[in-house]
Amino acid sequence: MIKIINTTNGTEEVQKEIEALLNRSQLEFGEVNRSVEDIITKVRDEKDKAIIEFTEKFDGVKLDSIEVTEQEIEDAYNSCDPELIAALEEAAENVREYHQKQLSNSWIQNDKKGIMLGQIYNPVEKVGIYVPGGTAPYPSTVLMNAVPAKVAGVSEIIMVTPPSKDGSVNKNILAAAKIAGVDRIFKAGGAQGIAALAFGTESVPKVYKIVGPGNIYVAIAKRIVYGYVDIDMIAGPSEILVLADETANPEYVAADMLSQAEHDTLASSILVTTSEELAYKVKEELAVQTASLSRKDIIEKSLADFGAIIIAKDMDEAISYTNEIAPEHLELIVKSPFEMISSIKNAGAIFLGAYSPEPLGDYFAGPNHTLPTSSTAKFYSPLGVDDFVKKSSLIFYDRERLEEKKDQIIKIAEAEGLTAHANSIKVRFK
Ligand SMILES: NC(=O)c1ccc[n+]([C@@H]2O[C@H](COP(=O)([O-])OP(=O)(O)OC[C@H]3O[C@@H](n4cnc5c(N)ncnc54)[C@H](O)[C@@H]3O)[C@@H](O)[C@H]2O)c1
Ligand SMILES: N[C@H](CO)Cc1c[nH]c[nH+]1
Ligand SMILES: [Zn+2]
User: Fold this and answer.
1) Which run of H or E residues covers position 272?
2) 329 has catalytic annotation
3) Lower CB count within 10 Å: N or C terminus of the chain?
């Protein structure tokens, strides 16, 4: 049962609640941390053999081979519902169009005689994408990860995802991978999938960067391998915070909260409102709607552990709680949502008004649904083209310009006691 916290009775309880939500952060899961470390070490040492063992243990299937074949991908695509293929194609096009706007160009500055400076952009060559598949298949996540990588010009996209009990990968996931242009697909979920991408195995190529969301095991594994490879962010169990006033429809608010609660028992769904009446109506609606949903058990646990309805004394207080929680998804269901945008400092994605519900962003609108969770929206951004691009600096001085500035450079080098650095300049002008 979701709890209602009324801040007119004092703010202590809200602060405690916010702390509890923030403690949900992967940093607090000591036991999970240790078991993920063990999985990663074993995969690094024993490679494919360890993946096969962990897949049997966690996904309940003994694999003969880890890689998905071209034929399996073709067959999956051809057996998919054509209407689903059309919807995925349209969603992919929206994601492509949105991410194309994020492309930055290399630049050169040559307005000073004899000097040329600049920056060139290159795609990361090999990228690993994680696509969740433990409790639900996520074809939409294939698009969200692979399409921006393609837009950036990544040349090799390696995907890992957990297999089903029969040893296959969900056909809709494979179809989405074909639509998005994924190069190779491996049946490896959780921490073992992340370790395979980070260190490489006999079957899985080592990549330079790993992106994509997943459950707590995936999120922690990414944090542990960071440094051996780059990662995008911590994109763990889903979250939604609805910021609503008395104009909001309780049926819509409850439905949107439930859309994220159904992802995971560790998902978090919060309503912050200035209307006491709305708070109680949403609580009722949550119970009514949950009763008919297929993932009722997950939802009930998630709402009881990480759900909350907070009644704030006014909109300023409501906004300040929102910024402190820094949710993955924020819905503004208020009279004038556009006027509120500038007050929001921390959120992965902001949905404006009653007709921009969160699943519009999950599946279709174009912005990425791989987003920072556990308050990390305070410093991380949504997955985007930038995540797949790196930069190199360009530096050119001609002889005259270097001679003109040689004394300053030598001065700094000698101040650092680095005479070889100073000599590299001096040697050119003896
Ligand atoms: N933040 C985002 O952008 C975003 C986007 C989509 C989905 N998600 C999240 O992705 C997650 C999907 O979770 P899922 O579980 O369905 O799929 P998943 O693929 O993330 O995880 C399944 C894997 O977890 C591992 N695992 C399960 N129990 C384990 C145990 N006891 N010990 C070690 N490993 C274990 C297994 O290897 C299994 O293959 C949800 O939390 C959802 O909220 C987040
Ligand atoms: N809401 C998830 C991100 O937290 C993304 C997703 C994919 N499919 C459905 N939802
Ligand atoms: Zn979702």
Assistant:
1) strand 268-273
2) yes
3) C
In terms of pTM, does the model score above 0.90?
yes
Q: Is the CB of 7 under 6 A from ligand 1?
A: no
Question: What ranges make up the beta strands (E) of 38-133?
Answer: 107-109, 115-123, 126-130
Cβ(373) to ligand 1 under 6 A? Answer: yes
- Out of 18-22, 140-144, 281-285, 306-310, least confident range: 18-22
- Catalytic hit among 239, 262, 328, 331: 328
The answer to whether residues 255 and 357 touch, using CB atoms and an 8 Å cutoff, is yes
Q: Is the CB of 263 under 6 A from ligand 1?
A: yes
At 239-259, the pLDDT tens digits run: 999 999 999 999 999 999 999
Across the chain, mean pLDDT equals: 96
For ligand 1, atom 42, the nearest C-alpha belongs to 237
Across residues 95-122, what is the average pLDDT?
A: 97
In ligand 2, the atom with minimum distance to the C-alpha of 267 is 4
Phi, psi (5° rounding) for residue 25? -45, 145
Question: 14: CA distance to ligand 2 center in Å?
Answer: 27
Mutate to test the pocket of ligand 2, among 88, 135, 141 (most ligand atoms within 8 A of CB): 141
Q: Please list the residues that pair with 231 across neighbouring strands.
A: 210
Whether residue 327 contacts residue 21, with contact meaning beta carbons closer than 8 Å, is answered with no
* Longest alpha-carbon distance in the chain: 86
322 CB neighbour count, 10 Å cutoff: 25
pLDDT(381) > 80 = yes
Q: Is 237 in the pocket of ligand 1 (CB under 6 A)?
A: yes
The domains of the chain, with CATH numbers, are: 3-25+237-369 (3.40.50.1980), 47-235 (3.40.50.1980), 399-429 (no CATH)
The answer to ipTM > 0.85 is yes
Active site residue 31: no
